[in-house]
C-alpha cells in the first residue's frame, strides 16, 4: 500500500521539474533586469555579472562543496534530489533566455514577479525533500554544531551579499533586488508550514 504521507517517484519528478523550471524563469527575469538576490543564487549572479561567465555553470560549481554537507546532514535522498534540481536549474538558465524575451518589463513588477515565481519554485522543492543547495545546507550544519540559528546565518550571508552588491550596483538596482528577495522570503515564510503541510 502507498504511504499517503509520502510522495511518489512521479510526484517527486514533477516537483523537481517544476521547481527547477520556475527557478530558471526567475533567474531569467532577475538577470534581464540586472538585479541580484540572496543566498547561493545571489552569489552566482554577482559572480556572473563581475566576470561575464554564465549563471548556470557558476551556480553549479558553487554548489559542489555543499553536497557532502547535505549528505551528512540530510541523507542521500535529499542530496540526490538537490543535485538534480541544481543541475536542471543550471542547464535551463542557459537555454531559457533563448526561449523567453521581454519587449517591456516594469522593474518593480519584474522584481515582485521574480520573488513570487522563485518562492513557489523553492516551496515545490522543499515539500519534496530537495533544495537548491548552498548556504541553506551550511546554515543547518552550523546550527547542529554550534546552536547558532540557521535563519541568522542566512540573514548574515544575505546582508554581506547585498553590501557587496551595493558597491557594484546603483542604489535603485539594489533596492529593487531587495524587494525581490523580500517577496521570495515572504512566500516561503507564509506558505512553508510543516504543521500544515506534512507530506515529504
From TrEMBL:
Keywords, in A-Z order: Cell membrane, Membrane, Transmembrane, Transmembrane helix
Entry keyword annotation includes Disulfide bond: no
Primary localisation category: membrane
TM annotation in the entry: 15-35, 41-66, 78-96, 108-126, 174-191
Entry-linked InterPro entries: UPF0750_membrane, YitT
Subcellular location: Cell membrane
Any Pfam family: YitT_membrane
Keyword Transit peptide applies: no
Gene Ontology terms: cellular component: plasma membrane
Membrane topology classification: Multi-pass membrane protein
Superkingdom of origin organism: Bacteria
Identification of the protein by name: YitT family protein
Amino acid at each position: 500500500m502507498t504511504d499517503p504521507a509520502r510522495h511518489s517517484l512521479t510526484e517527486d519528478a514533477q516537483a523537481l521539474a517544476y521547481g527547477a523550471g520556475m527557478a530558471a524563469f526567475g533567474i531569467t527575469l532577475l538577470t534581464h533586469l540586472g538585479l541580484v538576490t540572496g543566498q547561493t543564487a545571489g552569489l552566482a549572479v554577482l559572480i556572473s555579472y563581475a566576470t561575464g561567465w554564465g549563471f548556470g555553470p557558476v551556480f553549479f560549481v558553487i554548489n559542489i562543496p555543499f553536497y557532502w554537507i547535505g549528505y551528512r546532514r540530510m541523507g542521500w535522498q535529499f542530496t540526490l534530489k538537490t543535485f538534480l534540481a541544481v543541475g536542471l536549474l543550471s542547464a535551463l538558465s542557459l537555454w531559457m533566455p533563448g526561449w523567453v524575451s521581454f519587449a517591456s518589463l516594469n522593474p518593480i513588477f519584474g522584481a515582485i514577479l521574480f520573488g513570487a515565481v522563485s518562492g513557489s519554485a523553492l516551496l515545490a522543492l522543499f515539500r519534496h525533500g530537495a533544495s537548491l543547495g548552498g548556504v541553506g545546507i551550511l546554515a543547518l550544519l552550523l546550527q547542529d554544531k554550534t546552536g547558532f540559528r540557521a535563519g541568522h546565518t542566512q540573514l548574515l550571508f544575505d546582508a554581506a551579499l547585498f553590501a557587496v552588491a551595493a558597491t557594484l550596483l546603483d542604489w535603485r538596482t539594489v533596492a529593487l533586488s531587495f524587494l525581490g528577495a523580500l517577496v521570495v522570503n515572504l512566500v516561503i515564510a507564509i506558505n512553508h508550514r510543516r504543521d500544515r503541510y506534512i507530506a515529504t
